[in-house]
């Protein structure tokens, strides 16, 4: 499968625990995005990488969230001290380096904080 | 602040009907507008529009962009139950702040 891959697909965690998600983009795509989606809403932008550089981070993102893309390939999104409000689908997408080019999404990681 | 408004929020039709979904936007440094279909999982790409007035078609789906009036429409003809999904509109910003900004979507339900 040469599409965007996300792991795990589902994660249930207790409030206060840390979680980490992984995204493997399409191999030739240099742009990688993280979005969060809750029921009844469209995806909400979290952060964006061009190669290994994190170029933008949503101001809605608290300090408990951090993302990395150390070698410009896969990326990780970590949430520290999870809260119930963090429960959502976390989506990763990748695209080629054209401005406004189409982004392709992975299947997402569904996080449930209990 | 960037804004994307989709209408209607939800729509119920019968198989064979034609539907038109609307998307209006206000986005800084606009580059393109993308349409996605979302069923139970992640959004799947439908169209990318960059030029005004040029219709893009894929089977029963078509879409067009008006950059002067800042809106786009997605048409689906001869709807089928498999078209039931959320349709998301996403204007894309260019440059260093490249990203897609999503609307809340239109929930389409096609009844047999």
Descriptors:
heterodimer; A: 114 residues; mainly beta; four-stranded antiparallel sheet; 11 strands; 49% strand; B: mainly beta; six-stranded mixed sheet; five-stranded antiparallel sheet; 58% strand
Please provide a written account of the structure.
The complex is a heterodimer of chains A (114) and B (112). The model of chain A has no long low-confidence stretch (mean pLDDT 91). With 114 residues, chain A is mainly beta. In chain A, a hairpin with a 6-residue loop joins strand 4 and strand 5. Chain A is built from no helices and eleven strands. Chain B has 112 residues and is mostly beta strands. Chain B contains no helices and eleven strands. Chain B has strands at 3-7, 10-14, 19-26, 30-38, 44-49, 56-58, 61-66, 71-76, 85-93, 99-100, 106-111. In chain B, a hairpin with a 5-residue loop joins strand 4 (30-38) and strand 5 (44-49). The model of chain B has no long low-confidence stretch (mean pLDDT 92). The chains are: A mainly beta (114), B mainly beta (112). The A-B interface holds A 31, 33, 35, 40-45, 48, 50, 55-56, 91, 93, 99-108 and B 4, 30-32, 34, 36, 41-45, 48, 50, 88, 90, 92-105.
């Amino acid at each position: 499968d040469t599409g965007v891959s996300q792991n795990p697909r589902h994660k249930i965690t207790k409030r206060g625990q840390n979680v980490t998600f992984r995204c493997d983009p399409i191999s030739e795509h240099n742009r990688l995005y993280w979005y969060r989606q809750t029921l009844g809403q469209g995806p909400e932008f979290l952060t964006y990488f061009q190669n290994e550089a994190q170029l933008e981070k949503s101001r809605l993102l608290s300090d408990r969230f951090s993302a990395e893309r150390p070698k410009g390939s896969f990326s990780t999104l970590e949430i520290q001290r999870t809260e119930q409000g963090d429960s959502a689908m976390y989506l990763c997408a990748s695209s080629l380096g054209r401005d406004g080019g189409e982004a392709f999404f992975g299947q997402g990681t569904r996080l449930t904080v209990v | 602040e960037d804004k994307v408004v989709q209408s209607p929020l939800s729509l119920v039709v019968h198989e064979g009907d034609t539907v038109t979904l609307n998307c209006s936007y206000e986005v800084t440094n606009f580059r393109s507008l993308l349409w996605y279909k979302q069923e139970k999982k992640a959004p799947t790409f439908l169209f990318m529009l960059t030029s005004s007035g040029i219709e893009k078609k894929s089977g029963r789906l078509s879409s067009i962009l008006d950059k002067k009036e800042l809106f786009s429409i997605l048409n689906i003809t001869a709807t089928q139950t498999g078209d039931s999904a959320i349709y998301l509109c996403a204007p894309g910003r260019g440059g260093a702040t490249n990203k897609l900004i999503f609307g809340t979507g239109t929930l389409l339900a096609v009844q047999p």
